[in-house]
Design brief:
71% helix, mainly alpha, elongated, single chain, 2 domains, 185 residues
Length: 185
């Protein structure tokens, strides 16, 4: 892991020469920054850290902050695992037609995050309300995947079994008529 951090800072030195020397002029400050980055990036593999550094270099003309590096590492990890970015996953979940379970999902995490968030919330609420809820669910699932959990779509039988206790259409009509008479509609 230390080697990965050293390689990252070597890449930054080559790509952001003047900014690098301005930010890390003395060796003691550089060592403190490296320790901070090592602690903060400990949850990522060395490969992910290097991919994150390359992503930072490709997308930013300025020396990245630790926060930006963490974002790039998360993005690189998602790409390596075949997961779409959170906003792309959100759009996919919102735009998927019914029946949701029968759709060709880019990754099971997208379907599971949509189901956990609630399909009704995704379809009926503005993005300002539904996206944060979806993002929490999706990031939690991504963290599970990073920890080695394998996600799978539920089988079609599970979906049918969950709705097996739905009343028959005649009972539904009778209950609707009762509600209309009770409310005077």
């Amino acid at each position: 892991m230390v080697d990965a951090i050293n390689q990252v800072f070597a890449l930054f030195r080559l790509n952001y020469h003047n900014q690098y020397y301005s930010a890390f002029g003395d060796g003691s400050q550089l060592n403190q920054v490296k320790k901070l980055w090592l602690d903060s990036l400990a949850s990522h593999s060395a490969e992910t850290i290097l991919l994150g550094a390359r992503r930072c270099i490709e997308t930013s003309e300025y020396l990245p902050t630790l926060h930006r590096m963490l974002e790039c590492c998360r993005s690189a990890r998602l790409d390596a695992q075949g997961l779409p970015e959170v906003h792309a996953a959100y759009r996919e979940a919102c735009l998927a037609p019914e029946p949701k379970q029968a759709q060709a999902w880019s990754h099971p995490a997208v379907y599971l995050a949509g189901r956990e968030t609630g399909w009704f919330l995704l379809a009926s609420s503005p993005e300002s309300k539904s996206f944060p809820a979806f993002e929490r669910c999706y990031r939690a699932l991504c963290d599970q995947i990073a920890a080695g959990v394998t996600l799978a779509l539920p089988s079609r039988g599970e979906s049918v079994a969950a709705h097996a206790d739905a009343p028959d259409p005649e009972r539904q009509r009778a209950q609707l008529a009762r509600l209309r008479s009770d409310t005077g509609i």
